[in-house]
């Protein structure tokens, strides 16, 4: 699942390179709005497995817990187009005793244009009762280790965060 190795570096931002598939696009050749979620969640699942040796299925079976989506906030800034290579970044920007917030963003392949930003709020629940429960200690270790520092999620506006990500993308592109 996840075993904290104090001698190991755990990145706080993950990235995947993906191609936009024809089957996921609308007649205007834009990625369908609902498909952004599939691209983000598939990328995140692959990223955390590879970078952190974290397996949500193992968490489900061993701890009898899971995260369930509570809320999304999404901004469609520029379309992702059919057959376009894009970059998907994801990072944990907040956690408390039973909640996590994952931030996703998408850029073009060269990382010069921001295309989309998504915040997903998830609650930690018992799979037996369906009720919220506190994160297990091993999960808290994972969250503390992989959370992006210096994001004041409880006090930041989504649109202000989009502006900050745009600036980050522009500064990397220069």
From TrEMBL:
GO molecular function terms attached to this record: hydrolase activity
InterPro entries: HotDog_dom_sf
CDD domains with a match to the protein in the record: 4HBT
Signal as UniProt keyword: no
Gene3D superfamilies registered for this protein in UniProt: Hotdog Thioesterase (3.10.129.10)
Record has Oxidoreductase as a keyword: no
Protein origin, superkingdom: Bacteria
Alphabetical UniProt keywords: Hydrolase
One Pfam family matching this protein: 4HBT_2
Full protein name: Acyl-CoA thioester hydrolase
Organism: Spirosoma oryzae
Taxonomic lineage from the root: Bacteria, Pseudomonadati, Bacteroidota, Cytophagia, Cytophagales
